[in-house]
Write a structure and sequence with these properties.
This protein is an alpha+beta fold. It has a single domain, classed as Roll (2,3-Dihydroxybiphenyl 1,2-Dioxygenase, domain 1), CATH 3.10.180. The chain is built from five helices and 16 strands. The strands form two sheets. Strands 2-3-4-1-13-16-15-14 form an eight-stranded mixed sheet. It has an eight-stranded mixed sheet with strand order 6-7-8-5-9-12-11-10, with helices on one face. A hairpin with an 8-residue loop joins strand 3 and strand 4. The chain is globular. The mean pLDDT is about 95. GO terms for molecular function: dioxygenase activity. Keywords: Dioxygenase, Oxidoreductase. This is Ring-cleaving dioxygenase. It comes from Gottfriedia endophytica.
Length: about 325
């Protein structure tokens, strides 16, 4: 049976590009590994943050667009995004978030203690200590490698039809159900990062796409050959996946599972160094070949942004 290693990336909607960079790079210490544009709407940035190389399982991406309306987190969406931090670093992160005025709370699921907070646009985030996953060697501002976010821990899905979403996780993506606790059902993949999915079993309000919500979640495929096998399987199971789409840094298919959540399956290769060296990741606006002729026009229309050390770290 096909089995995904876990989360490939997660993409969300936000309003302001510089504020987004200041939070995810400046406060959370993630590396801006790619600055490009939304291939479907080239007037909007597509910003990618991750570990030092932007490895699959570490990358959160954003469409920052000032004109979009407010979203509402609810059914048919990824409700909560969890990041893994090294064991023993929770107090560092609690102090750091509070230093930058981020309100934090704590909660426990399946015996694990989570630090919960929101980003400036209202996305619900968590930090969880785990041994799993390689250390992130990237250091920036006040975040050194020994405390740096490793990548994703997992997600909480708000499904409109939990049994349908469960079926996709188990019988298409190859997750294993490892238990239920109160209102959560937990699934785990075979990977060592981005490997935990919790389904929230209690009904909630219907989600609305917009600022402060997740647009889609992508699952890992080893290569294009495996991606095509998943596409065939989805069709056999009665789903309607897209054709394979070229995203420069990976190839992908998309489909809506019946709980309302937009799923993507994306290939691990070729990765973010296909058009930039590892040392220069995120420094320049990178465009697909078919938009290179419009570089001057796009650079003029897109807002000026920079990765900067925040005042609290100087």
């Amino acid at each position: 049976m096909l089995k995904t290693m876990g989360i490939h990336h997660i993409t969300a909607m936000v309003r302001d590009a510089q504020r987004n960079i200041d939070f995810y790079a400046g406060v959370l210490g993630l590396r801006l590994v790619k600055k490009t544009i939304n291939f479907d709407r080239p007037e909007v940035y597509h910003l990618y943050f991750g570990n030092e190389k932007g490895n699959p399982g570490t990358v959160i991406t954003f469409f920052p667009w000032a004109k979009q309306g407010e979203g509402r987190i609810g059914t048919g969406q990824v409700g909560v995004i969890s990041f893994v931090i090294p064991n023993g670093s929770a107090s560092f992160w609690e102090n750091r978030l509070q230093k930058f005025g981020v309100e934090i709370t704590s909660n426990t699921r399946f015996g694990e203690k989570y630090i919960r907070f929101n980003d400036p646009d209202g996305l619900q985030l968590e930090l969880i200590e785990r041994d799993e996953g390689p250390m992130n060697t990237w250091s920036f501002g006040g975040v050194q490698s020994e405390n740096a976010i490793k990548g994703f821990g997992g997600v909480v899905l708000y499904s409109a039809q939990t049994f349908k979403t469960t079926d996709v996780l188990e019988n298409i993506l190859g997750f294993e159900c490892i238990g239920q606790e109160n209102e959560f059902l937990r699934f785990k993949s075979v990977g060592d990062i981005g490997n935990t999915v919790d389904i929230h079993l209690s009904p909630s309000i219907r989600g609305l796409m917009g600022v402060g919500t997740v647009h889609h979640i992508a699952w890992r495929a080893k290569d294009e050959e495996e991606l095509l096998k998943w596409r065939t399987l989805l069709i056999e199971k009665g789903y309607y996946p897209t054709e394979v789409r070229e995203r420069n840094y990976f190839k992908a298919i998309y489909f809506h599972e019946e709980g309302g959540i937009l799923f993507e399956i994306a290939t691990d290769p070729p990765g973010f160094t296909i058009d930039e060296s590892a040392e220069d990741l995120g420094k320049k606006l990178m465009l697909p070949s078919w938009l290179e002729s419009k570089r001057e026009e796009l650079e003029e229309s897109l807002p000026r942004v920079e990765v900067r050390i925040l005042e609290g770290d100087k």
